[in-house]
Design goal:
Rossmann fold, alpha/beta, DEAD/DEAH_RhlB, 7-stranded parallel sheet, 2 domains, EC 3.6.4.13, 424 residues
C-alpha cells in the first residue's frame, strides 16, 4: 500500500517523500483513512510505529481542505505529556505542512511563556501543547479553544500516569462539544478505555500490536551484578563494545547525574536529562546525542518519554523500572521501524522481583548472564527500592489541591498549582 492510496493530497505526498518515506506503516494504513472520514479513533500502537504521522497527516489534509476562518483560530489541538514529546510532534507538523498554508505552534513549561504568547497572537491552525502550560495560558486568556475542530490525546496512558486527568477534563470543558477526537496510547488499559468513553464519540478501535509486546528486532539480555558494580560494568560494556550511541535509564534524577559524571571521568562523553534540568539543557543534550557529539544520554523515564532517536542501537536499563510496563516503553527506544537494537538490563539482587514482573507481563523469559569479573555476591542492598503498583506509581500532579466541588483554595494554593504546571 502507498501513501497515495490512503487518500492524501499531492502536497502531503510531496512532504512525505521529502522526509524519505515510501510506504505507510500498519498504524498509518489503519488510522489515516478513518481520520480522513471524520471518525473518532482510539488507537493503540507501540512506540516507533509512526503513530505521530498517523494523525498528523490526515489532520493537515482536513484543515487544508476546509475554509480558513479569519484570524486563524486554533482548529486542532494535540496534547502531549512531556516537553520533549510536544516538541517532537510539532516538528512532524512543521515537516509535513511544508507545502501547505498551515500555521502551527508548540507550548510547554520550563521556558519563558512570552514568545509562545506572541506566536499565538498572530493565529495558528494547529497547537501542540502540554496540559500544564496550556492551562496557564488559558487562564491568562492568551488563547481560546472555542472554535476547535479536532482534539488529539497523544500517549494518553502516560498522561494518566503523570496525574493529568483533572487537567485534561478542564481543558475539554473549554471546547465545543462537536469535534473529532483522536486518542493514541501504548496500551488499552481499563483506565484508558474509561477515559475514552467520556471523550470519544462512537470511536473505532485500531490496534497494530498486542499489548505490552516488544519489537522482535530488539535483542533483550539481563546481566546479574551487584548494585555497587553497575557503573564499572556499564563502562566496560560501552568501552569493550565501542558503542557510539547508548541511551541509559535510571530511576532517579540523582542517579542519572552521578552515572553521567562517572562516565565522563572514564572518558565516555555523556549528558543527563531529567525533570530538574532546564528545557534548554535538555534540548542541547538531546541534540548533541543525536549528532554524535556525545556517546551516552542518561535519562529518567519521564524525561525520555517521546524522544525520537532514529536507529538507536543500544539501550541500557541501569536500574529496572519499578512499573513493569515502563520496561516496554524504555526498550521501545531501540529496534524501531524494523531496525536491529539491543536492550541490556543490569539486575542486582533487589531487582530480581522486577524481572519476574516484566517476564510475566511479556509472557517470555529474559536471557540472563553473568559477566566475568562482575559475579554478584547476592548481598541485598540496605536501600532496597519498593515495587509499585502502576496505578499508584506516581503521585498525581494535582494531589493536595482539593476537590473541585469544595470552596476555592487560597491564593497561595493557586500559585503553587500554577507553578507545578509550569514545570511540565
Amino acid at each position: 500500500m502507498s501513501f497515495k492510496s490512503l487518500g492524501l493530497n499531492d502536497a502531503l505526498l510531496k512532504a512525505v517523500r521529502k522526509q524519505g518515506y515510501e510506504n505507510p506503516s500498519p498504524i498509518q494504513e489503519k488510522a489515516i483513512p478513518l481520520i480522513l472520514e471524520g471518525k473518532d479513533v482510539l488507537a493503540s500502537a507501540q512506540t516507533g510505529t509512526g503513530k505521530t504521522a498517523g494523525f498528523t497527516l490526515p489532520i493537515l489534509q482536513i484543515l487544508s481542505e476546509t475554509k480558513k476562518p479569519n484570524k486563524r483560530p486554533i482548529r486542532a489541538l494535540i496534547l502531549a505529556p512531556t516537553r520533549e514529546l510536544a516538541a517532537q510532534v510539532h516538528k512532524n507538523v512543521v515537516d509535513y505542512s511544508k507545502f501547505l498554508d498551515i500555521k502551527s505552534a508548540v507550548i510547554f513549561g520550563g521556558v519563558n511563556a512570552k514568545p509562545q504568547i506572541r506566536a499565538l497572537k498572530y493565529g495558528v491552525d494547529i497547537l501542540v501543547a502540554t496540559p500544564g502550560r496550556l492551562l496557564d495560558l488559558l487562564d491568562q486568556r492568551a488563547l481560546s479553544l472555542g472554535r476547535l475542530d479536532i482534539l488529539v490525546l497523544d500517549e494518553a496512558d502516560r498522561m494518566l500516569d503523570m496525574g493529568f486527568l483533572r487537567d485534561i477534563k478542564k481543558i475539554i470543558s473549554l471546547m465545543p462539544e462537536r469535534r473529532q477526537n483522536l486518542m493514541f496510547s501504548a496500551t488499552f488499559s481499563k483506565e484508558i478505555k474509561k477515559l475514552a468513553e467520556g471523550i470519544l464519540h462512537r470511536p473505532i478501535s485500531v490496534e497494530t500490536a498486542p499489548q505490552n509486546t516488544t519489537a522482535e528486532t530488539v535483542d533483550q539480555k539481563a546481566y546479574r551484578v551487584d548494585r555497587e558494580s553497575k557503573i564499572e560494568l556499564t563502562i566496560k560494556l560501552i568501552s569493550d563494545g565501542n558503542w557510539k550511541q547508548v541511551l541509559i535509564f535510571t530511576r532517579t534524577k540523582h542517579r542519572a547525574n552521578k552515572l553521567s559524571e562517572k562516565l565522563v571521568k572514564a572518558g565516555i562523553t555523556s549528558a543527563a536529562i531529567h525533570g530538574n534540568k532546564s528545557q534548554g539543557a535538555r534540548t542541547k543534550a538531546l541534540d548533541y546525542f543525536k549528532s554524535g557529539k556525545i556517546r551516552v544520554l542518561v535519562a529518567t523515564d519521564i524525561a525520555a518519554r517521546g524522544l525520537d532517536i532514529p536507529l538507536l542501537p543500544h539501550v541500557i536499563n541501569f536500574e529496572l523500572p519499578n512499573v513493569p510496563e515502563d520496561y516496554v516503553h524504555r526498550i521501545g527506544r531501540t529496534g524501531r521501524a524494523g531496525a536491529d537494537g539491543q536492550a541490556i538490563s543490569l539486575v542486582d539482587i533487589d531487582e530480581v522481583e522486577y524481572v519476574r514482573s516484566i517476564e510475566k507481563l511479556l509472557g517470555q523469559k529474559l536471557e540472563t548472564e553473568v559477566v566475568e569479573g562482575f559475579e554478584p555476591t547476592n548481598k541485598p542492598s540496605e536501600n532496597k527500592p519498593k515495587q509499585q503498583n502502576r496505578r499508584t506509581s506516581r503521585k498525581p500532579r494535582s494531589q493536595g489541591q482539593g476537590n473541585s466541588n469544595k470552596t476555592k483554595s487560597s491564593s497561595g494554593s493557586k500559585k503553587r498549582s500554577s507553578n507545578n504546571r509550569r514545570r511540565r
